[in-house]
Design a protein that fits this description.
Strand order of the largest sheet of chain B: 3-5-1-13-10-11-12
CATH architecture of the largest domain in chain B: 2-Layer Sandwich
CATH architecture of the largest domain in chain A: Roll
Number of strands of chain A: 5
Largest sheet of chain A: 5 strands, mixed
Mean pLDDT of chain B: 97
Distance between the termini of chain B: 55 Å
Strand content of chain B: 15-25%
Low-confidence stretches of chain A: 1-44
Largest interface: A-B, 50 and 53 residues
Strand content of chain A: 5-15%
Shape of chain B: globular
Helix content of chain B: 25-40%
Distance between the termini of chain A: 48 Å
Strand order of the largest sheet of chain A: 2-1-5-3-4
Largest sheet of chain B: 7 strands, mixed
Helix content of chain A: 40-55%
Low-confidence stretches of chain B: none
Structural class of chain B: alpha+beta
CATH topology of the largest domain in chain B: Aldehyde Oxidoreductase, domain 4
CATH superfamily of the largest domain in chain B: Aldehyde oxidase/xanthine dehydrogenase, molybdopterin binding domain
Number of helices of chain B: 19
Radius of gyration of chain B: 27 Å
Oligomer: heterodimer
Number of domains of chain A: 2
Number of strands of chain B: 29
Structural class of chain A: alpha+beta
């Protein structure tokens, strides 16, 4: 953190380039960073000389649920904020905004991520899947259907995150063991305590997807 | 009882709204964004106890984007809230009593501006000495938190002759138990939005367990007519008691009243932790005496609970704790007393069980201590003392019907014995010790010795479509589904064929709080009564139409038919216009209040509840004697619910209660200013869940709808004592304070010698 901060401060003093700013945010602010490919992609097509203040917006491209979206974001905005407040996809829930509860879990390039701990600029050019992206037209997708069938939620607030974690798990591990399921959803808190039914729903979803 | 005699009751039909919750549609308050909504932010106290000398909002008002900053003087009505005793201001006037107390409210065009302005509000505080321990707060010279003194309420229940019974007792056990403050930690932080509708009504959508109470409170704060405010319950992401209090509703009402433009307020997680009710921490001194057979003959209990800065549901917690202190056991001589005390802790209120989970730790530990003293099996001593039909309770109430405690004990017995004989003797690593523990509980359905009626309306339109109007807030437990099933059963309809209008003060009447495990029983009865009235009108008209006597007619699938000649039938859609054209009534109101008698203020004598739920859990745990880590492997949970209207929902409640019970037993402890979010305050994750074996016991309750009682809170209550008893069984050393954290379990392991034995061997 220390080295990043001093670079960042130096950049500020001199009038920071957009490129430098994004780099600082991407690697400095978020531990579990996607950075690599996403950041490289974001650098190529931007004029390096443009000067940004912290409140300036930048245009980024996100592939959300199969559709390309160009959005203007402030560099400090999280992916969660952009999904919910800018784009209006309310399926992704905010439970803590500090990476503790998992209600905001989405898939970024197929991997479950806390959207509250991911900057939108980090997700530049990545493929993002939210609960809405699991819908099959007006119908629920297989993981959602499994959750309904197994009564795997009560209040439903943590459920989008649980579903995204299960979906991510099954993409990687189509036939998960019970331990793999437990670990797969252990980053998603459920205070109603529907955990055992969530495990069953994950099994049910695995069967549905294999069929 | 067979479910075949019922059309929809007893069947786990698809929960209402289940699919809609999983599409991503905006159903929670934080998902809704009325156009041009202003963002609200409360400025909260920086001191646990301080006088307010002045509030300067001028710098806050100059922050760009700020529209208004409100203080107490802007509240047009009565600046006091509280469901039982009104002692909590919406915005502090002359002093703050806890870190959570709001002193000002900012309305701004952006969340950033609201935050900046909130930080810029300058309050001139005069810090006062503070007190956080309730026993210290009872001292003569303790800082005074409210003008009427720090003892908010003392509830007593006395029966028989305790002194004489202790004199004769063979064994006497006296211990002190402590429980922690608990944060509900629902996943949806409190939230609401509001806007004025076209006729000027202030419409508030809120995440709430009691919209009709919110309505009364907002009306009172604003000093307006009832019809000027409309509260609608949005989807509510868990409540567990905390969303019974006014959280954002008053702030939204105040801003709407002055600004007449849309507003929204979504608590951050930190604000939800700091500013909402907690479970009361208890100190319980309990003394029990038993004869040589193990029968408990006397109990003396003195408890002090910390209600924090405000009353909230504290009075209900104190009275329920006193009434439930004996547990589900017949004890003839009792002297029970629970005192709720104000301190400068953030306020405590309702949480799943209202003091009963705290009491259960004490009475279930005492039962095990007596069993051990007399070399009895823990299950055996509970069977010996457990209530039955005819038992007289501490308040002098005779239990006449639906007393399923012994059935619950019988139900867990096979699994308990299997665990005691087989599982316990399986080989484990040297550092793991296994234990099995039992926890019993009883829980009175509905509020304690006070009237708590529910109402409902069931109406049919000209086309024969039935709509159920209920003020009952479904917070995820599935009450809307259950109430639809009850209406459907009465009318011979599928539950899903009934339209529902739920928890909207414009269209529904008061169903009371979604608390005290009361909605299936009380609102269920109100719904059944309304539906029965409508059914009777349909049957009466069908008699005219079919020329068949009423007693032979049945309702099924939207028609009335002759039970002897089913081909003789008439559809509701045909009956409805005939009834209306004759001036008949197709809209019926139901009302139900459980039969109770208020408790005598000195002796506690009375009938606090018309029915009780019972349960027994057996927990199997593994304790790592070197680290203090406790893993709950298995919980067998038998619950007498009267009748499971929706068995899958009942099982959901049981498993959820066990999860919360694991947290209460092993990990949860709210410390103001220290546990600010889930990072510091741990609740059970998927990895902490035991295997749960739910067992539904149905001792039918004659006054319940189709025999039903309730299960929401009972589900949680026996888990923690069962786990503590199991840990004690594993270590041979008892823990008297919750949570049984790693440190406490490790201390017990060291004190019992297991740590040393294992450490030396390895």
């Amino acid at each position: 953190m220390g080295a990043q901060n001093s670079d960042n401060n130096a950049a500020k003093r001199e009038g920071m380039t957009r490129r430098g700013f994004i780099q600082a945010m991407g690697t400095g602010a978020v531990g579990a960073s996607l950075s690599g490919a996403a950041l490289a992609a974001s650098h190529g097509n931007e004029p390096p000389e443009k000067i940004l203040s912290a409140k300036d917006t930048v245009k980024i491209h996100l592939h959300i649920n199969g559709a390309d979206r160009a959005v203007l974001v402030e560099p400090r905005w999280t992916l969660l904020y952009v999904l919910r407040e800018v784009i209006g996809l309310t399926g992704t829930k905010e439970g803590c905004s500090r990476g503790e509860c998992g209600a905001c879990t989405v898939l970024v390039d197929g991997i479950p991520r806390y959207a509250c701990m991911t900057l939108a600029v980090e997700a530049q050019n990545c493929h993002i899947t939210t609960l809405e992206g699991l819908m099959q037209g007006e119908e629920l997708g297989p993981v959602q259907t499994a959750f309904v069938e197994e009564d795997a939620f009560q209040c439903g607030y943590c459920t989008p995150g649980q579903i995204m974690s299960v979906h991510g798990l099954l993409e990687k591990t189509p036939r998960p063991s019970m331990d793999e399921i437990r670990i797969g959803v252990s980053g998603n808190l459920c205070r109603c305590g529907a955990y055992n039914n969530i495990f069953r729903a994950a099994r049910n979803a695995a069967e549905r997807k294999i069929k | 009882m067979s479910n075949d005699r019922y059309h929809t009751v007893g069947k786990s039909i698809l929960r209402r709204g289940a699919k809609e919750r999983l599409t991503g549609n905006p159903i929670f308050c934080a998902d809704m964004e009325p156009e041009n909504a202003l963002y609200l932010k409360a400025v909260r106290s920086r001191h646990p106890h301080a006088g307010i000398l002045g509030i300067d909002v001028s710098s806050a008002m100059s922050v760009p984007g700020v529209v208004q900053v409100f203080t107490a003087k802007d509240i047009p009505g009565k600046n006091l809230m509280g469901i039982i005793n009104k002692d909590q201001p919406l915005l502090a006037e002359d002093k703050v009593r806890s870190l959570a107390d709001p002193v000002a409210l900012v309305a701004a065009r952006t969340p950033g501006a609201a935050d900046l302005a909130a930080a810029a509000v300058s309050v001139d505080y005069d810090p006062l000495p503070a007190v956080f321990d309730p026993e210290e707060a009872m001292a003569q010279d303790a800082p005074q938190i409210h003008a009427k003194g720090n003892v908010m309420v003392q509830k007593k229940v006395c029966r028989g002759d305790v002194t004489a019974a202790f004199d004769k007792a063979h064994t006497i056990i006296e211990k002190t138990y402590r429980t922690s403050a608990i944060e509900h930690t629902y996943l949806e932080p409190d939230a609401g939005i509001g806007f004025p509708d076209e006729d000027g009504t202030l419409v508030i959508y809120a995440s709430t367990q009691n919209p009709h109470y919110d309505h009364k409170e907002v009306v009172s704060l604003l000093g307006v007519e009832d019809h000027a405010v409309r509260i609608i319950q949005a989807a509510t992401g868990g409540g567990f008691g905390s969303k019974l209090d006014m959280n954002v509703q008053g702030f939204i009402g105040l801003a709407l009243y002055h600004l007449k433009q849309p507003v929204r307020y979504v608590y951050t997680r930190e604000e939800a932790f700091l500013a909402t009710a907690k479970r009361h921490p208890f100190v319980i001194h309990m003394k029990t005496g038993a004869d040589e057979t193990g029968r408990i003959t006397a109990m003396q209990m003195k408890a002090v609970c910390n209600t924090g800065a405000y009353g909230s549901y504290g009075i209900a917690v104190a009275s329920r704790a006193a009434v439930h202190a004996t547990g589900p056991y017949a004890i003839d001589n009792v002297n029970l007393e629970c005192t709720a005390v104000y301190t400068n802790h953030p306020f405590c209120g309702a949480m799943r069980g209202f003091g009963t989970p705290q009491m259960a730790l004490a009475h279930e530990s005492q039962m095990d201590l007596h069993a051990r003293a007399l070399n009895m099996d823990p299950l055996e001593i509970r069977v010996l003392n457990g209530v039955k039909k005819g038992t007289v309770t501490a308040t002098g109430q005779v239990l006449t019907d639906s007393v399923g405690f012994q059935d619950c004990l019988t139900a867990v017995q096979p699994e308990y014995e299997k665990a005691m004989k087989g599982w316990l003797s399986e080989p484990t690593p040297a550092y793991i010790r296994r234990g099995v523990g039992i926890g019993g509980m009883w829980y009175g359905i509905g509020n304690t010795g006070v009237q708590n009626p529910s109402t409902a309306r069931v109406a049919m339109d000209r086309e024969g479509q039935v709509t159920l109007f209920t003020g009952c807030a479904d917070i995820g437990q599935g009450s809307t589904t259950v109430l639809s099933q009850i209406a459907g059963e009465a009318l011979g309809l599928d539950a899903m064929d009934i339209h529902v209008v739920v928890a909207d003060t414009k269209y529904t009447t008061n169903a009371g709080a979604t608390s005290a495990s009361r909605q299936t029983y009380i609102s269920g009865n109100a719904v059944k009564q309304a539906a029965d009235k409508l059914a009777d009108v349909l049957l009466t008209e069908a008699v005219n139409y079919l020329k068949i006597r009423k007693s032979d007619l049945r309702l099924e699938n939207g028609r009335v038919f002759d039970s002897r000649h089913p081909e003789k039938q008439v559809a509701f859609s045909r009956l409805a216009p005939r009834i209306l054209d004759k001036g008949g009534e197709l809209s019926w109101q139901g009302y139900f209040d459980p039969e109770t008698v208020p408790l005598h203020p000195d002796t506690g004598e009375g009938i606090p509840y018309s029915t009780y739920a019972f349960a027994c859990h057996a927990a199997c745990v593994e304790v790592d004697v070197l680290t203090g880590e406790t893993s709950v492997c298995r919980v067998i949970a038998a619950h007498d619910v009267g009748k499971a209207i929706h068995p899958e929902n009942v099982i959901g409640q049981i498993c959820g209660g066990v999860a919360m019970g694991v947290g209460f037993a092993l990990m949860e402890e709210f410390v103001p200013g220290e546990t600010i979010s889930m990072n510091d305050y741990h609740i059970p994750t998927a990895a902490d869940m035991p295997c749960v074996i739910p067992i539904i016991v149905e001792a039918s309750e004659p006054s319940g709808p189709f025999g039903a009682k309730g299960v929401g809170e009972p589900a949680l209550i026996p888990t923690a004592p069962a786990i503590i008893n199991a840990v004690t069984h594993a270590l041979g050393k008892r823990i008297y304070a919750l949570p049984a954290s790693l440190e406490r379990v490790l201390d017990a392991s060291i004190a019992s010698g297991h740590f040393n034995n294992c450490y030396q061997e390895s």
